[in-house]
Amino acid sequence: MTARWSSRVLAANVATRNGFSAVKRYVSQEAYQNLLMSTPKPGVALITLNRPKSYNAMSSAFMAEINSAFQSVEKDKSIGAMVITGNEKAFIAGADIKEMKDLTFSNAYGEDFIEPWSLQVSQIKKPIIVAVNGYALGGGCELAMMADIIYCSAGATFGQPEIKLGIIPGAGGSQRLTKVIGKSRAMELILTGKNFSGREAFDWGLAARVFETPQQCVDGAVDTAALIASYSRIAVKACKEVVNKSQDLGIREGVEFERRVFHGLFGSKDQKIGMKAFAEKQTPKWEHQ
Ligand code: CO8
Asked: What Enzyme Commission number does this protein have (predicted)?
């Protein structure tokens, strides 16, 4: 497994391997064991989780690959936004239980199990859209909630079933889910381990959009990523930063932070390009500076 990848066209038929067919794929030059990398539209990286036999359960090697892929996309100047998806059966069915079952307290605590992984994901600065089809359970639901935008199909299955294994959510599930859907609903789901559907995820405000089919979900996520990638990367980065700050700050400090970043953007080339283009009825040609 290597971290580097490029958008060179190697094959366009990868799509059928993971159950999706309409999105044209341009796969990476250097392959991961359990990930398919492609650039279906300019500026968009599509990371397809591809460990189908275990429903994309997250083993430590798989998590290392996901981190590595995120880091390469983050560094790739040609990419403005990324989409993460799985297959029709599973986005991710959670941490790999078979690998985790013999973990001891001293190993988990002493070696900070999960911590570096979940911290690294939340430090990615490019927008991440997840296209959730099938199961998004435990760590899978948590990874989806670490992303910036959740799209799902109506039949997707979300859940935090850790209680059934004698543990609790370990990568932010109890915090992020509660913030979005409210204490009573989150408490019910986490205490019972019951799943909820993609339709419910949308109705409760967890998902931004819900689609009838998995294919529509992936296509919708790629289209949105392409739109985001068509804007100034400087402005996109700042948008993500200020929205994320709202999760940590009160409204007064948050608005002050937003204003500072807003002021700062008048020092960017893209602000001049964007406003000049508007005034002259032209399309802006962003320089991402
Ligand atoms: N770990 C390991 N293997 C898994 C997992 C998993 N989480 N989920 C499914 N598999 C494997 C099954 O063992 C099976 O393998 P095999 O064919 O070798 O027996 C294969 O995938 C297919 O699974 P099933 O036969 O069970 O398929 P079903 O369609 O009957 O059921 C389910 C699918 C409902 C997804 C079921 O497999 C299931 O309940 N899986 C476990 C879900 C779960 O409990 N997830 C939470 C795990 S704990 C967790 O995530 C803690 C989070 C800590 C933070 C992690 C951050 C990364």
From this structure: 4.2.1.17
